[in-house]
Amino acid sequence: MTEKRAQEPGYDIGADAFRHVPQLSGRIHDPHTSKFRFLDFVDIDRRAKESNYPENWRRPDDERESTRRAILAEQPDEDVWVFAYGSLMWDPGFFFDEVRIGRIAGYERRFCLHLTGGRGSPDRPGLMAALDLGDLCDGVVFRIGADKVEHETAVLWRREMISYGYQPKSVDVSTAQGEVRAMTFVADHASQRYAGAVEIDEAAQKIAGAKGMMGSNIDYVLNLADQLDLLGLKDEHFAQLAAKTRKYGSA
C-alpha cells in the first residue's frame, strides 16, 4: 500500500447521496478504486518524458494550488458543489454527499481542447471535452460536505488542473431541487491546447484514432454517451459526434 493510500480518510458514499438520481447508484465508480484519486506524479512525469512530452506540460504544484484557493474563496457555503459534464459524471474520484441533475446557461459541452496526454499522445493526439461559450449544458452536480471539502477538492484539482487547458469557474446551476452555486472547469481560450470550434467529422476522426497513457479517446466518448443516455440528457451536437466517432472507430 502506498503512503497516499495509507493516509486516506475514512469516507464513503451513502445510499442517500443518490436520492434525487437513483439511477446513478452503482453506476458511479467507487472513489476508493478510482485511478484518478491516486495519481502518482512521479510516475506520470517519467512516462511523459518517455513519451516525449514537452518539459513544461504539467502545471506547477503551487500554481495549481493557488487556483484552488481562489475558487474556494468564491463559494458561498461551507459545502461545495461541483458541476460535471464529462468523465466526472461517472468517475469523479472524490467523495460526495449528494448528486443532482443540473443545467448551466452560457456554456456548451464541446471537444475543443487538443489532447496529447492522458487519452492522447504527441504521436496520436485527440480531443478533450470542456465547457465552451454557448447556450446551455446539462450534467450532474455533486455536493461535497464541509468536512470533506479540503481533502476532496485537492484530489479533484490534481486530476483536472494537472496541465493547462482548463480554468476553474463558479457558475449557477439549475436543478429540480433548487439553484446552487458550483465550481466547474471551462476551456481556457488563452491556452495553446484550445482548439476552438472543430468540425464534427474532423473531431470524430481525431478521437477515433487517439490513444495515450490513460487509454483511448474513443472510450471516453462512448462512456459519456452511455452516461447521458442513463440520465435521459439530450445533447444533439455531442450525439452527432458520438455517432461519427463510432463509425470511424469501427472502420
Question: N- to C-terminal separation?
Answer: 42 Å
Major sheet: 5 strands, mixed, barrel
Q: What is the name of the CATH superfamily? A: Gamma-glutamyl cyclotransferase-like
Helical proportion?
A: 25-40%
Please identify, by name, the CATH architecture: Roll
Mean of all residue-level pLDDT scores = 92
Tally of separate domains: 1
In CATH, the topology is named Hypothetical upf0131 protein ytfp
Extract low-pLDDT stretches.
none
Strand order of the largest sheet: 1-3-2-4-5
CATH class: Alpha Beta
The global form is globular
Number of helices: 7
Beta-strand content bin = 25-35%
Based on DSSP secondary structure assignment, what is the total number of beta strands?
7
Broad structural category? alpha+beta
SSE string, helices as H and strands as E: HHHEEEHEEHEEHH
Rg from alpha-carbon coordinates? 17 Å
Describe the secondary-structure layout.
Blueprint: H1 3-6, H2 41-50, H3 61-72, E1 80-84, E2 98-115, E3 126-144, H4 149-160, E4 166-175, E5 180-187, H5 200-209, E6 211-212, E7 215-216, H6 217-231, H7 236-250
Parallel strand pairs: 1-5
Antiparallel strand pairs: 1-3, 2-3, 2-4, 4-5, 6-7
